[in-house]
UniProtKB/TrEMBL annotation:
Low complexity biased stretches: 569-589
PANTHER family, sorted: CADHERIN-23 (PTHR24027), CADHERIN-RELATED FAMILY MEMBER 5 ISOFORM X1 (PTHR24027:SF414)
Entry annotated with the keyword Hydrolase: no
Chief site of localization: membrane
Superkingdom classification of source: Eukaryota
One biological process term in Gene Ontology: homophilic cell adhesion via plasma membrane adhesion molecules
Signal sequence interval, chain numbering: 1-26
CDD domains: Cadherin_repeat
Biased amino acid composition, Basic and acidic residues: 591-610, 617-627
Sorted UniProt keywords: Calcium, Membrane, Repeat, Signal, Transmembrane, Transmembrane helix
Segments crossing the lipid bilayer: 461-484
Protein name: Cadherin-related family member 5
Length: 681
């Protein structure tokens, strides 16, 4: 409570005592409330107090502070609007004189207390404040106290908004701004704050102010050689430089400042906000006094020629001119080389290439939109007879989107957006640092344009893939049909195999005819050819001694039930008992007396559905002749075939051929192509 409020309270208490003492005596007029409370911003005519008056009594206001009150009948009313903030005293004493003819009573005193309400907002002295604080100030350091004022004298509540929590308030009732975290000029040179305030009780009023805090850069870092990599260690930041490289020619003094990589010797103040001047000095590596460094610029020059082999390593110090104890060092490595007469040069002064937007990382730039040939840049060196310097290296200057291989091919390093990139290439001799440049323009074409060759785009390739898939499906279907047909005709293939075995058996071997050989062909069983023998009957005939066959069938073979069966023969046929010779016809008996020949018929029949093995003449199985397979058409007329067969006989007689074995396969159940196999023995 301030002094003003204390004074008013004491005066109010005193007035009340006086009123009570006066009103204790007889009065012509009285009031039940001698100390009414009256809020500011009242309405005119508002009743302040009601007065009880005896008959015939007249009232007059003797004391009327601020001329704020009046009488309306027996009521004391307000005749003006009262403002708490403009009153010198919020306790107003009103005195009323009550009289009656021949009688006057003591003054009626009414103490009116004007009450303050929250009708004024808080106000800052300024809408914007500018503050400063040194970087690396300890946490909790006081910055500034910014308060708002309110005519209503009610308590105010404050709130501070700091973007990254750099600052805070001491409390919500005390707007003292404190440092809340470590401040670094390099990362946060300035902070913008918002300070809010609101009053109470309702209705609540608010106000705000903007605060800009400038972080002052202090001298806490040494010089940083450029370029360098910044590294944060705790709250301290350092910048690491890898040094400088260059070349000097043996026995030759350079007249200009040395050219170094990645650039000239240069250092800046680590405290970027201060930017104190930097000086340079050679510390070591210059014992022969060959080099000199400019203390202001850092340029290194030669005082005399180098006469020793390299490399030469110089140690350079950079220090702040005003505070030399803030310093840093680096190295300059110089390679001593023999000067060449010509630097490497590109074959062309400019190159142009193309690449698609959707090309993968690592793809090569192409020579043109309509070619698959990659773009290759080449450089020659006239110091070499063939122009090929094995120590040259290519690079793209100022771009990380492309790189050049040692062979001169240009690769993309990252995905690219459509457009044209104008670049500069450099080729350097790594032994002496000599280099030259050429321009490079790479057009990145949008996805969907014709690809290399100018014929097919991505949509075309997709359509081609779909077509190939359909063709592959058709091929699989055809292969399936062929497999089915091959399996369906497997019996025909089996018969051809049996014929081949039959042919090889007739040829015999180095040991002559085999004992106990039987030839069967189940496909010919049941033929109606009465003048021929089936395979089983022919096999069961005894083999007489003759010029062609010197050995007969052993009797033991007839008694064995499980004789060996040659490939292609049925075991059931070999185990069958021989038929009684009495059942044979005379012609069969005559045939049996002749030289045994494993044949089925001597007649050639061409009826549909007929299957036969035909021999034109008797053969001698002991004769070893080459077998010739002659494909023949089953559709040939019988007469035409006979003529052809006669011709074949004449040719075979001239060549010493003794027999022919013809297998004719005809099928009466289908219309498939017929096959004929002829064997000349």
């Amino acid at each position: 409570m301030d002094l003003k409020h204390l004074n008013l309270t004491l005066r109010t208490a005193f007035c009340l005592l006086v009123v009570f003492s006066i009103n204790a005596s007889g009065q012509l007029c009285t009031t039940e409330t001698n100390s009414p409370v009256f809020k500011e911003n009242n309405t005119i005519g508002q009743v302040v107090a009601e007065i009880t008056v005896q008959d015939g009594v007249t009232m007059n206001i003797i004391t009327n502070p601020e001329e704020a009150f009046g009488l309306n009948g027996t009521n004391l009313v307000a005749v003006k609007v009262l403002d708490y903030e403009t009153l010198d005293n919020n306790i107003l004493l009103v005195e009323i004189q009550c009289t009656r003819p021949g009688e006057t009573s003591p003054l009626l005193r009414i103490i009116v207390t004007v009450e303050d309400i929250n009708d004024n907002p808080p106000v800052f002295a300024q809408s914007h404040y500018q503050l400063e604080v040194p970087e690396l100030s300890p946490i909790g350091t006081s910055v500034e106290k910014i308060e708002a004022t309110d005519l209503d004298k009610f308590p105010l509540n404050y709130t501070l908004h700091s973007p990254m929590g750099e600052f805070r308030l001491q409390s919500y009732l005390n707007p003292l701004i404190l440092v809340n975290k470590n401040l670094d000029y390099d990362t946060t040179p300035e902070v913008s704050l918002m300070l809010y305030v609101e009053d109470s009780p309702p209705p609540v009023h608010t106000a705000s102010a903007t605060i800009t805090v400038t972080i002052i850069d202090i001298n806490n870092r040494p010089p940083w050689f450029q370029p360098c990599t910044e590294t944060l260690i705790g709250i301290s930041k350092i910048c690491l430089n890898t040094g400088y490289q260059g070349t000097v020619n043996l026995t030759e003094q350079a007249t200009e400042a040395l050219t170094l990589e990645p650039g000239p010797v240069h250092a800046i103040d680590g405290d970027k906000g201060r930017n104190d001047p930097i000086n340079y000095r050679l510390l070591s590596g210059n014992e022969d006094g060959i080099f000199s460094i400019d203390p202001n610029s850092g340029d290194i020059t030669m005082l005399k020629a180098v006469d020793v082999a390299g490399p030469i390593v110089l140690t350079v110090m950079a220090y702040e001119q005003l505070t030399p104890d803030m310093f840093a060092t680096t190295t300059v490595t110089l390679q001593v080389v023999i000067k060449s007469l010509h630097p490497p040069k590109f074959v062309k002064s400019s190159y142009e290439g193309f690449i698609s937007e959707d090309a993968d990382v690592g793809s090569m730039v192409l020579e043109s939109k309509n070619s698959n040939k990659p773009l290759q840049v080449l450089a020659t060196d006239d110091d070499f007879a063939d122009g090929k310097n094995p120590s040259i290296a290519y690079e793209v200057v100022g771009s990380n989107d492309f790189r050049i291989t040692t062979e001169g091919f240009i690769l993309i390093v990252r995905s690219l957006a459509p457009g044209t990139a104008d670049l500069q290439m450099r080729v350097a001799d790594t032994t002496n640092g000599e280099f030259s440049t050429a321009s490079l323009s790479v057009e990145v074409t949008p996805d969907g344009l014709p690809g290399p060759g100018g014929e097919f785009g991505s949509e075309d390739m997709a359509a081609l893939g779909a077509t190939l898939a359909v063709v592959l499906l058709i091929c699989l279907v055809i292969i399936g049909v062929l497999v089915y047909r091959v399996k369906r005709n497997s019996s025909d293939w089996k018969k051809l195999s049996e014929a081949s075995i039959f042919r090889s058996t007739l040829n015999g071997g180095s040991a002559g005819p085999k004992d106990g050989v039987q030839y069967i062909n189940d496909g010919f069983q049941g033929d109606e050819d009465k003048g021929s023998l089936n395979s089983k009957e022919a096999a069961e005939l005894p083999l007489p001694q003759g010029p062609g066959l010197k050995r007969s069938v052993p009797e033991e073979l007839e008694k064995q039930s499980s004789a060996p069966v040659p490939l292609g023969l049925s075991s059931s046929d070999t185990s069958s008992p021989p038929e009684d010779s009495s059942s044979l016809s005379p012609s069969d008996t005559t045939d049996s007396e002749k030289e045994v020949k494993p044949i089925l018929t001597k007649e050639r029949r061409m009826e549909d559905g007929y299957k036969a093995v035909w021999f034109k003449q008797d053969i001698d199985p002991s004769v070893k002749e080459e077998v010739v397979i002659i494909p023949d058409s089953g559709e040939m007329d019988v007469g035409q075939e006979d003529d052809d067969n006669d011709d074949d006989e004449e040719e075979e007689e001239e060549e010493g051929v003794t027999g022919m074995n013809r297998f004719a396969r005809r099928s009466g159940s289908d219309s498939e192509d017929e096959e004929t196999m002829t064997s000349d023995l």
